[in-house]
Write a structure and sequence with these properties.
This protein is an alpha/beta fold and 218 residues long. It is 33% helix and 23% strand. The strands form two sheets. The chain has a seven-stranded mixed sheet with strand order 4-3-2-5-6-7-8, with helices on both faces. Strands 1-9-10 form a three-stranded antiparallel sheet, with no helix packed on it. The longest helix has 25 residues, at 180-204. The structure holds 5-O-phosphono-beta-D-ribofuranosylamine. 5-O-phosphono-beta-D-ribofuranosylamine is lined by residues 25, 27-31, 61, 104-105, 125-127, 152, 191.
């Protein structure tokens, strides 16, 4: 079965408006900064960051967003029901007119409510070649398993952990000398590169979903 992309761009108006990204993060936010830099440098045209949202009040990524003068929002999740928390986040994303949600180190599984609120409009970056090594400490899982190539994946988000259709992947070699830190660094460089590329593909509507496959011209 194949389906056309859900439009992320709004219908063309006289002056076409940038697509508004909602970034969700829980930590240092280097992927967020890479996207912000791609927008600033013109590598990612036709997009703007509408809001940076976190479930962790003192996340470094939030502080960096504030420094860049971007709107931020915090919704602490501890002790709250997943649906209630997600409902608040969805309302905030809508209030900021977000078109496309980018998870960037957001350490929470999204509820079905959240996924349904932004159909085919939520992306995630994961530091492994999915479906290998989902979940936490993927780089350590790769080292412990003994694979010779590791990497990262940008995928659509569904209700399951690290499971939606894959948009882009990049592989890196695992060296004999690697530890978790050196391997993570090598993967992270690729994360920063392919997240921008994937967002560009989605913004431009330059893809088709066929079953689990996301097809796009090179
Ligand atoms: C990245 O490795 C990303 O793949 C994973 O969480 C980490 C976030 O890093 N989902 P950063 O906060 O973007 O620096």
């Amino acid at each position: 079965m194949s389906s056309d992309p859900v439009a992320v761009r709004k219908p063309e108006t006289a002056v076409s408006k940038p697509v508004r990204l909602g970034i969700l993060l829980s930590g240092r936010g280097s992927n967020f900064l890479a996207i912000a830099e791609s927008i600033r440098s013109g590598k990612l045209k036709g997009a703007e960051i509408a809001v940076v949202t976190s479930n962790v009040a003192d996340a470094l990524g939030l502080a960096n967003a504030r420094e860049l003068g971007l709107p931020t929002a915090v919704f602490e999740s501890r002790g709250r029901k997943r649906e209630d928390h997600d409902a608040d986040v969805i309302a905030s994303l809508r209030a900021h007119n977000v078109d496309l949600v980018c998870l960037a180190g957001y350490m929470r599984l999204l509820s079905p409510l959240f996924v349904a609120a932004f159909p085919q409009r939520i992306l995630n970056i994961h530091p492994s070649l999915l479906p290998s090594f989902p979940g936490l400490e993927s780089q350590k899982q790769a080292l412990d398993y003994g694979v010779k190539f590791a990497g990262c994946t940008v995928h659509f988000v569904d209700e399951n952990l690290d499971a939606g259709p894959i948009i882009l992947q990049s592989a890196v070699p695992v060296l004999d000398s690697d530890d978790e830190h050196t391997l993570s660094e090598r993967i992270l460089k690729e994360e920063h590169r392919i997240y921008t590329q994937a967002v560009k593909i989605i913004l431009e509507g330059n893809y088709k979903i066929a079953g689990r496959r996301v097809l796009h011209p090179a």
